[in-house]
Design a protein that fits this description.
elongated, Type II toxin-antitoxin system HicB family antitoxin, two-stranded antiparallel sheet, TTHA1013/TTHA0281-like, alpha+beta, Ribbon_hlx_hlx, 45% helix, 3 helices
Length: 114
């Protein structure tokens, strides 16, 4: 079961407040805070789509480049010994460290994807 919805390459979280009897969420993986809410699932999907469209329109109006949920780059932190071992393995295999990490993450995702 997924607690996310997707629209135009954006991902929205989905939560439910029993106290308020409302579904709510936000656009994930961007720095801007964009939220939405509704009282049923169909309205929630519509509210999410409207929030994405409003966000894109607002960015255009103010001349700001909309954030993309995933740019394909990120920084990772690891123990220096692991960094050294990974660098050594990548050198031995004739790859750069980035290629080694991409291959390792790809293999992990394939093995653990639902």
């Amino acid at each position: 079961m997924s607690n996310t919805i997707k629209y135009k390459d954006y991902i929205g979280s989905v939560e439910y407040s029993a106290e308020d009897k409302v579904f709510f969420g936000k656009i994930e993986f961007i720095n801007d805070v964009v939220t939405f809410e509704a009282t049923n699932v169909d309205e929630l999907e519509q509210a999410f789509q409207e929030s994405v469209d409003d966000y894109l329109e607002m960015c255009q109006e103010v001349g700001k480049e909309p954030e993309k949920a995933f740019k394909g780059t990120f920084n990772i932190r690891m123990h220096p010994d692991l960094h050294k071992k990974a660098a050594r393995v990548s050198l031995e295999q004739g790859k750069n460290l980035n290629q080694l990490v991409v291959e390792a993450v790809s293999q992990y995702v394939v093995e653990h994807a639902h």
